[in-house]
Specification:
Layout lengths: L2 H18 L3 H18 L7 E3 L11 H10 L2 E6 L8 E5 L5 E3 L5 E3 L10 E5 L2 E3 L4 E2 L5 H14 L7 E5 L5 E2 L13 E3 L4 E5 L2 E5 L3
Parallel strand pairs: 1-2, 1-6, 6-9, 7-10, 9-11
Antiparallel strand pairs: 2-3, 4-5, 7-8, 11-12, 12-13
Length: about 210
């Protein structure tokens, strides 16, 4: 184990503990603000195929938002671990979809659910740095998945999904010392508002 790996493990523990220490009511209020920012900043979500993650350990909870998007006509997907070291699959979710219990107890749709290609990915972060690189839980699944999606779209007419990181202001850090496998996010949305990745930096975007 090298110094960078040790640092990431320590920083991950610190950020998760800080996030979980926020009172649930305050996190719920932040989630409502993030919902509003996403709906205002990305109205196209209601017409797309949106992947989200079931909330884990105090993360932003996107379930209220995706239910509204589903009701508006969007297709919704959840990520599924199919094999260790492999990219994730995205399977369709509706409020009536039967869910199984996956790694860490996180629910996921079974094999009967159709596979989808998301146009947008709402991706929670443990931490995110000023250059838009995400600190996750250390499994590397989303980095592999986003790299595979980018590679597949480079060889056909499909469009790579827009990756929107979601989290709280307290998750923002100076740098994760990104490695070659780390994939930057296109946007970050927090309770404060929207940040767009421009020229390799996250820049706050004031909405009219």
């Amino acid at each position: 184990m090298n110094d960078a790996t040790d640092w990431r493990k320590s920083e991950r523990r610190r950020l998760i503990a800080e996030r979980e220490a926020v009172p649930p009511g305050q996190r719920a209020g932040w989630a409502q603000r993030i919902d509003a920012h996403l709906q205002r900043g990305f109205p196209q979500l209601a017409r797309g195929c949106v992947a989200f993650c079931w909330p884990y350990r105090g993360e932003y909870d996107a379930r209220n938002l995706v239910l509204k998007l589903h009701q508006a006509g969007a297709r919704i997907a959840l990520p599924v671990v199919v094999a260790s070291g492999s990219p994730l699959q995205f399977r369709q979710w509706t409020p009536d979809t039967p869910l199984l219990s996956g790694p860490l107890g996180i629910p996921y749709p079974g094999e009967q659910a159709p596979q989808l290609q998301p146009s947008h990915v709402l991706l929670p972060v443990v931490g995110i740095d000023a250059a838009g690189y995400r600190l996750g839980y250390g499994g590397g699944y989303f980095d592999r998945t986003l790299a595979a999606l980018a590679a597949s779209t480079a060889t056909n007419t499909a469009t790579a999904p827009l990756v929107i990181a979601t989290g709280y202001e307290l998750c923002r850090i100076a740098s994760i010392d990104p490695q070659p496998h780390d994939m930057p996010m296109d946007w970050l949305v927090t309770e404060r508002g929207l940040y767009r990745r421009e020229a390799g930096r996250l820049t706050f975007q004031a909405l009219p």
